[in-house]
Design goal:
mainly alpha; disordered N terminus; 19 helices; Growth Hormone, Chain: A; 77% helix
């Protein structure tokens, strides 16, 4: 296979505005899960309330995220390769969405107490894996919806839409469940029902706002292959691609760089709420407010840098974003006051969106048109194959040093390595 460093999406790849808007709205729908469950609400509930103590909870949460990521890394490229031979993406997205929201709704039964810790970790691990599997097929739809000159903007706008969805969901959780002395539905605060309700609530949110994408956004036509044929051909193609990946040198270099800086970013997501609760003593309401502010700045950053992505390229956008994450991430680890934590956290948010959106754009520009889902499977692989390293390292260092600050500092190493590996990557012209 020839080097595809200059390959990009088809010049005529486009869909109606309504179809693109519906695709972006799916980001609004699914972002509630990582925002509310993985980062800001349920993570700190598990580590502070369910676990024996915060240190043990942080270590257990890190191990769970690592094992979940390892499963994603192994299976995502396989499913992407199979989907390229079966043609359609939306059925795969629908199945994994249902698994994510049904298992996520089960978090309602995670009551306070160490005896519920294993249940919490299993439910979160399974729902998180299903969420990430669905993202492989969702991201692979991008090149078929947008012409090359608009890839950066549509990808960035979708990320911004996702952040807006995260904000909206967090605001509702704050006003309906967290702030009132007597939450709606007669929820019992002594058994933390105002926190546990976020699992079913996010599931309903996900389902309702995902429907327009399934109804309005076009999908690739199904092939005539049976499921067995698609699986055999997909596995064969994937093995061939992996063997010849050195011939895709530019793509391989990009995936290797992304492997590190996204590992750092994912670890930041997994432990952000835990760090806020453990080191700064933030309560549930304060973490929700911080999450809202962070999502506002992240959405603004995704929108603003979407133009930079299309005008100057994905590579410069990624380098600027990761550099910002490194500098301000180091600063937030040394401040003592909640005010400076809020301020620096919001500044960090500006660079989170561009790092994610521009990476998706870069993959869309590099992927051969007939291997888009497979390449996005490898894209997911690069974001998860070493994802156990970041959470495991934070958990282990936190336990060894008995300090969350020291543990969180390990994230900066992943950002620095990712930037250095990104420098030799060549970007195709849009």
């Amino acid at each position: 296979m020839a080097e595809t460093g200059n390959a990009g999406p088809r010049a005529d790849a486009k869909a109606s505005r309504g179809a693109v808007a519906a695709w972006c709205l799916f980001d609004w729908a699914n972002s509630a899960f990582p925002t509310v469950i993985i980062t800001f609400v349920f993570a700190q509930y598990v580590t502070k309330v369910v676990a024996v103590d915060e240190i043990a909870g942080t270590e257990a949460w890190g191990l769970m995220i690592s094992l979940s990521a390892l499963g994603i890394a192994i299976l995502a490229p396989i499913m992407g390769a199979i989907a390229d031979h079966s043609g359609r993406r939306k059925p795969w997205i629908f199945v994994f969405m249902l698994i994510c929201l049904m298992v996520g709704a089960g978090l309602w039964w995670v009551k306070p107490g160490p005896e519920y810790l294993l249940l919490a970790l299993v439910l979160v691990a399974v729902s998180n894996a299903a969420f990430e599997f669905g993202q492989v097929f969702y991201n692979a739809m991008l090149p078929d919806l947008a012409p090359g000159r608009l890839l950066g903007r549509i990808s960035g706008w979708a990320w911004a839409c996702g952040y807006a969805g995260g904000i909206a969901c967090l605001v509702i959780c704050l006003l309906a469940f967290a702030l009132p002395e007597q939450p709606i539905l007669g929820l019992d605060t002594e058994s933390y029902e105002q926190v546990r309700i976020t699992g079913p609530f996010v599931a309903i949110w996900f389902l309702v706002f995902a429907l327009p994408m399934f109804l309005l956004t076009p999908d690739r036509p199904a092939t005539r292959l049976s499921a067995g044929q698609a699986i055999r051909r997909g596995l064969g193609t994937l093995l061939g691609t992996i063997r010849q990946l050195p011939r895709y040198g530019n793509i391989a270099r990009f995936l290797l760089a992304r492997l590190f800086y996204i590992d750092g970013l994912n670890t930041l997501f997994a432990f952000g709420g835990i760090y806020a609760a453990g080191t700064f003593g933030m309560e549930f309401q304060e973490i929700l407010i911080f999450g809202i502010l962070l999502n506002v700045t992240a959405g603004l950053g995704a929108v603003a840098f979407a133009w930079v992505d299309d005008w100057f390229g994905s590579k410069p956008t990624i380098l600027i974003a990761v550099a910002g994450l490194t500098v301000f991430g180091a600063a937030i680890l040394v401040v003592e006051s909640k005010l400076w934590f809020y301020v620096l956290g919001c500044v960090i948010g500006i660079f989170i969106g561009p790092a994610q959106a521009a990476s998706r754009t870069m993959m869309a520009r590099l992927a051969p048109p007939d291997m888009q889902t497979e390449m996005f499977g490898l894209f997911a692989f690069s974001g998860k194959v070493t994802a156990f390293m970041g959470p495991a390292l934070v958990g282990a260092v936190t336990a060894a040093a008995d300090s969350q600050r020291v543990g969180m500092a390990t994230i900066l190493v992943f950002f620095l390595v990712g930037m250095l590996l990104m420098l030799p990557v060549k970007e195709p012209r849009a």
